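Figure S7 source data.
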Amino acid sequence: MISQIIEDILLDHEENLIIDGHKVATVRAENTCLHALMILNSVGYSSIPVLDREGRVAGQISTPLIFSGIKDELQYNWDKLAERRVSEVMSTNVAVLDENCALEDILHNLVNHSFLCLVDSGGFFRGIITRRELLKRVNYLAHEFDRYTEMYSN
Ligand code: 2BA
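Tokens for the predicted 2BA complex:
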């Protein structure tokens, strides 16, 4: 159980903790590995969410996963970049939480995942919460805690 003061401080900010789905770089499961590699290279993130045709979270993709997926026993087969689909090489180890989930679940999952995918009640992708956004708030909490506890005790 998280203390109410802590929860208030972590969630009480003007800017949204959630990065809206429209601002998140994603690829489709049916895209080729070549397409995914180009997206990863242009956005600069090490891994990004993979969505299915309906817009549900299918997994996550990274450059190392793509390279492993086109490797034969001894060497890389670059022709496979344009042949293999993201769905064939992606990882399904991605944290997916309901958009109304508790702060406790967010904190717990960000320990092992650098970002969490949020979905609506129909399972459709709505956005992500990143470790960076959460840690910015933890930093604020560490600096402002005394001021808040004073406020709460009055
Ligand atoms: P990474 O790509 O491994 O990025 C680790 C951290 O490096 C990011 O942490 C951020 O602080 C910084 N960083 C990397 N690339 C950046 C860029 N192009 N612009 C600004 N900062 C960059 P977080 O922001 O906590 O992100 C955690 C993870 O969430 C990222 O891990 C990435 O996998 C994913 N992510 C974050 N924002 C995303 C977005 N708009 N679209 C897709 N994936 C995103």
